[in-house]
Predict the 3D structure of the following.
Amino acid sequence: MEDVRRNYHRLRMTARRLFRYRKRQVEKVAAQADDTLDRHLFKRFSRLYQVRRFVISWTILLMFIGFGSIWQVRGLDKFYLELGPVAGGIYREGLLGTFTTANPIFAVDSVDLAVSKLVFSGLFKLSPKGELQPDLARNITVDDIGLNYTVTLRDDVYWHDGEKFNADDVVYTYDTIKNPEVKSPLFTSWSSVKIKQLDEYTVVFTLPNSLSSFKYSLTNGILPKHALSNVTGADLRSSNFNTVNPIGTGPFTYKSVEITGNNIDERAEKVTLDKNDNYFRSRAKIDGIVIRTFRDEERLQSAFIDKEINAMVGLRSVSDEVFADDRVQQFSVPLSSQVMLFLNNSSPILNDVKIRRALLKSTDVDGLLSSLNFATIKTDSPFLKSHFTYTSDKVQSDYNPQEADALFNEAGWLKNEKGIRMKDGKPLELQFVSQSLTEYATIAIGLQKQWAEQGVIINPLLQQEEDIQSGAVSRHDYDVLLYGISLGPDPDVFAYWHSSQNDPRLKTRLNLSEYSNAQADLSLEAGRTRLDEELRKAKYSSFVENWLNDVPAIALYQPRFLYIVRGTFDGFDLGEFTNSTDRFYSVTNWMIRREKMIKM
């Protein structure tokens, strides 16, 4: 025990000596460091004053080199860096109108069509060049007689809920459209078409008669059978599927809809869509789209100016305040439509072809179009210049007031001392109707002046779209109608000029001129039942000749689609749109952000 105590005491003494030794070493090193700092640093501070010019010169030189390097790097940015489009961001678009449904077989107005186009895919889609391109379909074949269209479908498409797309969905969609209980606006176009499924990815459409433009009907959105098969036709329009949980195969998925406002005038909707990461084509580069609705142009433009939205759709004219921001871009895209002066051939005055010809020669179309505040594409035929049936040697007559005067006189309408044309004691007075749009009002004012020079009186009546649709257009209650008709990429104009389309019993009585010519009818019938373009062109030749001779209307111009966008907007494809939703043709390529990147 005593030995243990002695060993313990010896160890303690050894540890203390070691600690004292280490402490002396640390103190020695610290003292040496202090001495070194004092001799080599602190004592030298006093000498800085003596070399102050040298120090200041080097300091300035180093600063100059530093700032110069920064300036040079920034200056060289333009040689090896550039601003380039990058993915990401939320695109916010404002539209005039109301959101009521995303269901493609019910969508009619611009807002519903926009949401439907982004959420749902069709069998085919139309490019801005008027070319029909496969979407859910891989290809289409037509038999020799033009009655059976066989469509082969893609086998790599999934619905937004993960279920696989197949031919069942296609057959269900068109059978639903054909169901009278559903009351789809597409019913008339599809009621006589038969749809048959050959296998899981092949369907056949059988027409009662050959129709060369049929394939352009295959662009409407396809519905998911698995999500709607338990909903009856009568209940489909009110189904939650339309506004709460629409399931499509399109590039964007439906997230939500928000409604604000306490009354109809203040009501507005905000529809939010997310990028579909499982889209069967290239995924969208933007993260999502927000569509906001507005009841009037003033509120829409105000939201754009306040930077609440990136783009505006549906405007006829734009205030100067919008363009105060130099980042604002304006796209004015021609539509495959035509604005015309429809001359009611059943009118007591206009049933005389000489009067219609005289009115044509009294109309300076170039002068009317120059009064508009935007560039237009002039039209001079029942076909557009983009139609393969258009020929520049068969166009309507030009403005010629001398020939117009002679035709009026030949028809017995002579000018009195006041310059007004009279016949049997009655003035040559016409009821003129058009939609209350700024551009139409401008045309009406110009036309009123031009025809007044020939002694023709017109009484203009400008109406709201809903009023003109339910009134003058449906009843043909006018002498002259200034109106726009949609033609599309195919030159099938049967609906507007065939005499059968003037039947008052029709829901859509689109022969707005009440034009009737037996030879023109035969030509229209033959032209729409042939598949070969050259043959169709030959068949339509007689129709054009008769139309130009009979002057059932005066062709004016192609209307435009006006698209206002702020900031970066890359990947947008221009062309000739069939309708406003064609702007989404290249939506998966849109990019709204830019960052610096190395030049390639």
About this structure: The chain has four domains: 2-75, 86-118+250-333+589-600, 121-244, 337-558.
